[in-house]
Inverse folding.
């Protein structure tokens, strides 16, 4: 038999235990201590903040943050370590207008609960000769004394988690923790370029930034000045949000989101919603799994921002988040499209190097189709071929509108075709004497893509085939096609089941025109069934891109100079003439100066 249960099993935890538990949320790791202390220094109005990290062989042993901010009186210094003691808010209502980074009054109390802390502080401009020193261990004050001190505050945290062995055990390697500290300090430096920061590690300076009114100085300090030419400035005042800062040209794109630095009302935050909105602003300028670099400051009415979502305050919640996301997307998009994004010769490639990512459908068709040695030079093609290409180009002409839109200036300069190379590249020049190499297929793909997306979103027009086309597929492919039938129908494909795993294609989107070559349809369906569905791109968007790719003049199709000029003229009318819908560049520029340098003329 079990012993009888005691009468009282429930008891209230003592304050020290409560604080240790709370510490689990606020102080996860050494980097959280750094973040809380630096935020306090910022809230104290500091102009210079110094962070000193000391580490032994495997772990960080001490963190000291020193500021020249407002400092504290002896009474405040004692109160600062009491749980829920704060000078920053009085009532919950104050949170609606909060301008400080802290407000929960728990950081110092929780850090002191799980470490040995020494605080030295002196109020600024008090004229007081002496400052205050307080020592706390595991939440208990072990010493208070007067001391000589400069204006401001210094907090030394040693033996973190000495009394919570489990938490200590879960700390990652020293280098991982240092990487986290770097991330946090970089984010904070970028959000507060008006403050100078110094981060040192075992006495060696790691990060040094100055107080500056030019955020680019801070960006260059942290990431090197070589990225500056690839940044596009952004300064948009929209109804719900002001967006200021820089986003990168597509050529700086990365495989992860690690270089998206966003602050909201000067708080460095991590927001998937905002990150997604920034990426969405690039649209087809970026390949699917690529992310830009961005340094953005958002100013949003404080009543729309809930900062009290998580104890570490790195997450925020936005009211009207859909509208705000839409505005961020728009501001990024407008900034990019008003910028000259033609990559210079020798610039980092926009596309993933081969092998790094699975090639997309577009890449597959992107090889020369004709056999034999690649022809070179300017040349004219056979009569029949020219007629066919002419027909394709006519069918896919971007409308030259009779109304005002033709007054919208092109994002590209005036371009004159010189000739063609290999049936793949168009050679052209600008009035400014730049040489352009234009990817014929990518350019036409972009034209078709914009033509399709300019049509109504609901049901895109289709064109009946002269004779229906029968598709035979494997059971697995047939299942994929069946799933996609509604999306295909909205895009203009009229396809019916034809028994078993066969389908009858009756009509295709108008942009494909009166196709005689049914292998295009076959190719579209193959691309659709072979490519994995994606969470970030809708089925309809995927179909549009594939249609644009398959419908476009193929690489290897030799075009006449007039046809090339036609492609270029159409491209100049595109809203985004710089990349194909998969994010690959449509053209590369060689300036006269670059060529002269290559030939050692200058
Ligand atoms: P919170 O920042 O949420 O108010 P903290 O526990 O981080 O809570 O700090 C408690 C209080 O101690 C702050 O409200 C502030 O008044 C004071 N304080 C903390 N750090 C500093 C500092 N570096 N300089 C001046 N005052 C500070
Ligand atoms: Mg704080």
């Amino acid at each position: 038999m079990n012993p009888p249960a005691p009468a009282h099993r429930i008891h209230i935890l003592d304050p020290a235990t409560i604080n240790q538990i709370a510490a689990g949320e606020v102080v996860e790791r050494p980097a959280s201590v750094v973040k809380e202390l630096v935020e306090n220094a910022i809230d104290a109005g500091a102009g210079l903040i110094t962070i000193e990290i000391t580490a032994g062989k495997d772990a960080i042993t001490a963190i000291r943050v020193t500021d020249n901010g407002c400092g504290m009186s002896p009474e405040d210094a004692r109160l600062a370590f009491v749980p829920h003691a704060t000078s920053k808010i009085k009532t919950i209502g104050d949170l609606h207008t909060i301008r400080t980074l802290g407000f929960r009054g728990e950081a110092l109390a929780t850090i002191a609960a799980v470490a040995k802390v020494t605080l030295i502080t002196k109020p600024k401009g008090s004229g007081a000769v002496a400052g205050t020193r307080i020592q706390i261990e595991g939440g208990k004050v072990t010493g208070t004394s007067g001391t000589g001190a400069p204006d401001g505050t210094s907090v030394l945290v040693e033996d973190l988690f000495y009394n919570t062995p489990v938490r200590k055990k879960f700390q990652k390697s020293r280098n991982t923790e240092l990487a986290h500290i770097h991330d946090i300090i970089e984010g904070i430096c970028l959000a507060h370029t008006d403050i100078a920061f110094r981060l040192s590690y075992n006495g060696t300076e790691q990060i040094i930034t100055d107080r500056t009114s030019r955020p680019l100085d801070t960006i260059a300090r942290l990431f090197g000045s070589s990225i500056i030419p690839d940044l596009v400035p952004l300064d948009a005042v929209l109804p719900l949000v002001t967006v200021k800062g820089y986003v990168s040209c597509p050529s700086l794109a990365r495989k992860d989101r690690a270089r998206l630095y966003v602050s909201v009302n000067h708080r460095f935050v991590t927001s998937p919603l905002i990150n997604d909105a920034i990426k969405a602003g690039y649209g087809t300028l970026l390949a699917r799994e690529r992310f830009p670099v961005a340094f953005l400051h958002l100013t949003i009415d404080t009543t729309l921002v809930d900062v009290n979502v998580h104890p570490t305050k790195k997450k925020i919640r936005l009211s009207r988040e859909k509208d705000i996301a839409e505005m961020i997307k728009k501001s990024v998009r407008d900034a990019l499209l008003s910028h000259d994004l033609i990559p210079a010769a020798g610039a980092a490639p926009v596309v993933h190097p081969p092998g790094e990512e699975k090639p997309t459908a577009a890449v597959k068709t992107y090889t020369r189709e004709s056999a034999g040695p690649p022809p070179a030079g300017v040349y004219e093609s056979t009569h029949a071929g020219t007629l066919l290409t002419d027909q394709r180009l006519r069918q896919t002409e971007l409308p030259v509108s009779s109304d005002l839109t033709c007054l919208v200036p092109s994002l590209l300069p005036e371009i004159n075709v010189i000739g063609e190379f290999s049936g793949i590249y168009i050679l052209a020049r600008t009035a400014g004497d730049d040489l352009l190499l234009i990817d014929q297929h990518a350019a036409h793909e972009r034209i078709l893509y914009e033509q399709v997306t300019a049509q109504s979103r609901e049901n895109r027009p289709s064109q009946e085939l002269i004779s229906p086309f029968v598709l035979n597929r494997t059971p697995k492919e047939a299942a994929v096609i069946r799933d996609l039938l509604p999306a295909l129908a909205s895009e203009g494909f009229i396809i019916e089941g034809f028994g078993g795993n066969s389908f009858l294609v009756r009509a295709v989107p108008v942009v494909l025109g009166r196709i005689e070559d049914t292998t295009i349809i076959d190719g579209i369906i193959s691309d659709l069934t072979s490519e994995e569905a994606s969470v970030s791109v809708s089925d309809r968007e995927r179909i549009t891109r594939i249609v644009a790719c398959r419908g476009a003049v193929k690489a290897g199709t030799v075009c006449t100079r007039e046809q090339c000029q036609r492609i270029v003229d159409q491209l100049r009318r595109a809203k985004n003439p710089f990349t194909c819908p998969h994010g690959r560049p449509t053209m590369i520029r060689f300036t006269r100066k670059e060529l002269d340098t290559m030939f050692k003329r200058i």
